[in-house]
Amino acid sequence: MSAADAAAPTASSPAAPGLDPALAARLKRDPQGLVTAVVQDASSRRVLMVGWMDDEALHRTLTTGRATYWSRSRQELWVKGETSGHVQYVRSASLDCDGDTLLLEVDQIGPACHRDTDTCFDGGELEAVVLHPEERTA
Where does the chain bind Zn(2+) (predicted)? Predict the structure, then answer.
């Protein structure tokens, strides 16, 4: 699919033709018409990756059972695993209370990250102060 055929909607553009209008009305898109999608392994509960969805990607995800995203770098839709074989089968999808973030629970086949690691967060740990319970105050 070319970028011209699958241009992301803007924040004020209409929803994808197949997306439920009630759901489309709940979405709070960024200026490029995208919503953040946090992807979690349905079994282990590990966060696998973060992607972006336009209305068409969300519609396809909800109606095909395969996670579909909007590639900000390629400016086109992509089905996770279409070329790599590292497929994400959707088990559930939720919209957060603000309407600006989706949570997908998936069955991940193969590595989730394009770097061939289980998650996009492997090796990305940052140093952070961890307070003991007795040190935690309001």
Answer: 97, 113, 120
